[in-house]
Design goal:
Layout lengths: L3 E6 L5 E5 L5 E5 L3 H10 L4 E6 L3 H8 L17 E5 L3 H20 L13 H24 E10 L6 H8 L4 E5 L7 H4 L4 H11 L4 E4 L2 H14 L3 E3 L4 E4 L2 E7 L6 H8 L2 H14 L3 E8 L6 H14 L7 E8 L6 H21 L7 E5 L3 H10 L2 E4 L9 H8 L5 E5 L5 H4 L4 E3 L4 H13 L2 H15 L4 H12 L1
Parallel strand pairs: 1-4, 1-6, 4-5, 6-7, 7-8, 8-11, 12-13, 12-15, 13-14, 15-16, 16-17
Antiparallel strand pairs: 2-3, 9-10, 10-11
The protein binds 6-O-phosphono-alpha-D-glucopyranose (G6P).
Pfam families: Glyco_transf_20
GO biological process, one term: trehalose biosynthetic process
InterPro entries: Glyco_trans_20 (IPR001830)
Length: 479
């Protein structure tokens, strides 16, 4: 096996499998901001992408692939060499669902106030041990695949311990870690058990370069290093001196690839869905949102804002439709299932309260349908992105790029994207339902000219650092 000079490691890889009733496996491209960004950057660059088997179908596929290499087993992985790791199911479940998604994701998105917030008990310690094993399995695969002096790009909160493990075993490697999430401020981060909080920070500091999507998250990371480690922080140069080494912290605001998105959106399946949507909503104005069914996306408050807008503005009844598209996500976790139900209930209530024979005010679709989302972006008059906290949020960037007639962006101040798009968006406090309702109204009342001009500027800002350049900038910095 040829060793690689560039490697990427992430929990979710660029492809996943599903199994039909007859036992046959079919491959599909993965989703989410991390995967869409990295897929474009890694394709064709001689990169090996190390990822985890996420399902039983993935595990079956890996077992038929020598050394875990899906591309070598004849799968079409889109020009990327993919090494999928067959982590034991129980280890994977503890590492992914319990530690990564219920604790680390929760802490960075300030979600510990939900009814199912974690309890750090003896069972959790066993989960933490599994998280270590899972990070270790990634380190093993990366060690096996890396050429001397290779550059390794480790991604996100699933893999915070891998950089340190790699450095201990392979000091020749140049290692980067990138967080696609926000980072918690020290007063929230300290809610983690102290030793685990420190293990995560020292794990990440095993890298040479640590990357974030915005200055705000990078500064919070530096503040945590200062508060919880015996480390020296320089906010001006964004660096951490720790354990005799200096680690640099960088900010890379991932954007979207405009031409690639336009090309994808020009395909027949998008045109079909666009026609179907037009037929469904007629010439009514369209408010659109597209999210994973994710607690931090704040879908329920967003729908409540639409309800308040309809209450306050009867003159808009019958003249507007809200399309809410949600991609099912993390449904192994009970709080995510309950949240999806709360979203459905709110949508039903709104339609029961305001709907008439000829008008359905809200169309909610909980389904994985990418071309339908692209069609909705093309038609949207208003795009709502109101997360309570979000690393970046690429929906806010994709919408303006594909808009055909101009779309007004209602955007949370707590999305990383607000830093780059704030000047031309209608910024809202995500907890302030009434302010969001007023923003929906203001967005609908924007003149055509203003909306189009703002959309053009939003699209420019959204495409400033497309995935290839985002990745190249980090690779250059790593040397
Ligand atoms: C966020 C995370 C990614 C993750 C994606 C989808 O964007 O930063 O690491 O892949 O959500 O979540 P999932 O749990 O389905 O991979």
């Amino acid at each position: 096996m040829n060793k690689a000079n560039i490697l990427v490691a992430s929990n979710r890889g660029p492809v996943s499998f599903s199994q039909a009733d007859d036992g046959s496996l079919s491959l599909r491209r993965g989703g989410g901001g991390l995967v869409s960004g990295l897929s474009a950057a890694a394709a064709g660059a001689g990169t090996v992408w190390v990822c985890a088997a996420l399902s039983e179908a993935d595990r079956l596929a890996v077992r038929e692939a020598p050394g875990g290499r899906l591309d070598e087993a004849g799968h079409d992985t889109g020009g990327i060499a993919v090494h999928m790791i067959d982590v034991p199911e129980d280890t994977f479940h503890r590492a992914y669902n319990t530690v990564a998604n219920s604790v680390l994701w929760f802490v960075h998105h300030l979600l510990f106030d939900t009814p199912n917030a974690p309890a750090f008990d003896a069972a959790f310690r066993a989960d933490w041990a599994a998280y270590r094993d899972y990070n270790g399995a990634f380190a093993d695969a990366l060690v096996a695949e890396s050429a001397d002096g290779a550059r390794v790009f480790v991604q996100d909160y699933h893999l915070t311990l891998t950089p340190r493990m790699l450095r201990d075993r392979r000091p020749d490697l140049r290692i980067a870690h990138f967080s696609h999430t926000p980072w918690a401020p020290p007063e929230y981060y300290r809610l983690l058990p102290a030793d685990i909080g420190r293990e995560v920070l020292t794990g990440i500091l095993g890298a040479d370069e640590v990357g974030f999507l915005t200055e705000r998250w990078a500064d919070a990371f530096l503040d945590c290093c200062a508060a919880f480690l015996d480390a020296e922080i320089d906010h001006r140069t964004r660096s951490v001196s720790f354990g005799g080494r200096v680690v640099r912290v960088g900010v890379y605001g991932l954007g979207v690839d405009g031409p690639a998105m336009q090309e994808r959106a020009a395909a027949e399946d998008v045109a079909e869905r666009r026609e179907a949507l037009r037929a469904q909503v007629g010439d009514r104005r369209l408010i659109v949102r597209v999210d994973r069914t994710e607690l931090s996306k704040n879908i329920v408050r967003g729908l409540a804002a639409y309800r308040e807008f309809l209450t306050d503005h009867p003159e808009w009844h019958g003249r507007v439709v809200h399309l809410a598209f949600a991609y099912p996500s993390r449904h192994d976790l009970p709080e995510y299932r309950a949240y999806t139900e709360a979203v459905r209930r709110t949508a039903e209530e709104i339609n029961a309260e305001f709907g008439t024979e000829g008008w359905v005010p809200l169309i909610l679709q909980v389904k994985d349908d990418y071309p339908r989302s692209l069609a909705a972006y093309q038609l949207a008059d208003v795009l709502v992105v109101n997360p309570i906290r979000d690393g970046m949020n690429l929906v806010a960037k994709e919408g303006p790029v594909l808009s055909q007639g101009g779309c007004a962006l209602v955007l949370s101040t707590e999305a990383g994207a607000a830093g780059e798009l704030g000047d031309d968006a209608l910024l809202v406090n995500p907890y302030d339902v009434s302010e969001t309702a007023r923003a929906l109204h203001a967005a609908l009342e924007q003149s055509d000219d203003e909306r189009k001009q703002r959309t053009a500027r939003l699209a420019d800002a959204a495409t400033m650092l497309p995935p290839q350049r985002w990745f190249a900038a980090q690779a250059e910095r790593l040397g």
